TrEMBL record:
Taxonomic path: Bacteria, Bacillati, Bacillota, Bacilli, Bacillales
Record key words, sorted: Membrane, Transmembrane, Transmembrane helix
Name listed for the protein in its UniProt record: Uncharacterized protein
Bilayer-spanning residue ranges: 9-31, 37-57, 64-88, 100-123
Amino acid sequence: MEEVKQHKALIVVLAVIACFRPLMNILGLSAQIGQPMASVSATVIITLAWIATVVFVRIRQPVVVLMFAGIVYVILAIVLSAVLSPILTGHLQGPITNPFAIVGVLVTNAVWGIIAGFLATVLMRVWKL
């Protein structure tokens, strides 16, 4: 957990970067680009940015850091959805309306962070960083 305390700011920055994906949906950009291509492309770009960042910074435990980035991202995305959906659509939407969805989204994004962290670890070992 020392790694998490040491890199709190980085975790938050990575989570904010990931908020680009729900913002694309909220602003209608995903619909204009076309689904599922928009979501898949955004996820790939965000994942590559996360991996590149932890490799560049040489994080000792990228799996832990990126797992927490995924969890913080979920919290930010839920808040973003809860605040913006009533303004944009007139009613509350998103995971906040279903507690089971919150658990599913948390688990999914924690696993996303773990997988990205594992890929970063492999790259760091291959490149001997």
